[in-house]
Amino acid sequence: MTVHRQITSCQAHATITVTHRASRGTNRGSLLWQVYVCDRHRLLPLQLTGASSLNHKATHPITGTPPRCGTLHDHQPIHQAIESHARTWLHAPTEHPDRWVERLSNAAALAAHVGAGQAGALDQIARIAEAGPDSPVVQARVLELLARAETAAAAAARR
Predict the structure, then answer these.
(1) Whole-prediction pTM value?
(2) Mean pLDDT, rounded, for 78-101
(3) For a FRET experiment, which of 100, 101, 144, 151 has its CA 20 to 30 Å from that of 137?
(4) Strand partners, 73
(5) Cα–Cα distance between 92 and 118 in angstroms, integer?
(6) For residues 68 and 85, what is the distance between their CA atoms, to the nearest angstrom?
(7) H/E/C letters for each residue in the chain?
(8) What is the percent of the chain where pLDDT is above 90?
């Protein structure tokens, strides 16, 4: 399942693309995500991985029509995708990152507590996740709604 996300509010065209592949396990080498960024945001992929340095072998110039900076094609399993959201915009404290439903519930509660603009959307997303966490249909819906909330949060930050 691929989810398209917009992780910046930057309106510039991307100049490079960075890919991230699984480094271990049975899915070793499979594409986890691909992000398109402009020169100003070239270090943004570090937030997605939590790494301290950029893998330049995974960085390539854009060929063809460049997408908007911050366009992310996400292929990760749901708990990894939620972790990626948490690194970039979703304030979701948890002691157990693999408990993705708990993380979403915590994010919704925190957003409501601080009056964040996405509090209502996060509450709805958490309720959907709680209704069927093992269902691929529910997981796909959660990731789709999170991608929309992320884009809205980036747009609100620009205002």
Answers:
(1) 0.73
(2) 82
(3) 151
(4) 4, 34
(5) 13
(6) 19
(7) CCEEEECCCCCCECCEEEEEECCCCCCCCCEEEEEEECHHHCCHHHHHHCCCCCCHHHEEECCCCCCECCEEEECCCHHHHHHHHHHHCCCCCCCCCCCHHHHHHHHHHHHHHHCCCCHHHHHHHHHHHHHCCCCHHHHHHHHHHHHHHHHHHHHHHHC
(8) 40
Tally of residues, the chain: 159
Largest Cα separation within the chain, whole Å, is 45
Sheet holding 59-61, edge to edge: 3-6, 71-74, 31-37, 16-21, 59-61
Cα 35 to Cα 31: distance, rounded to the nearest angstrom = 11
CA distance 129 to 100: 9
What are the structural domain ranges in the chain? Answer: 1-76, 77-159
Label residue 89 exposed, middle or buried (CB < 10 Å: 0-12, 13-18, 19+). buried
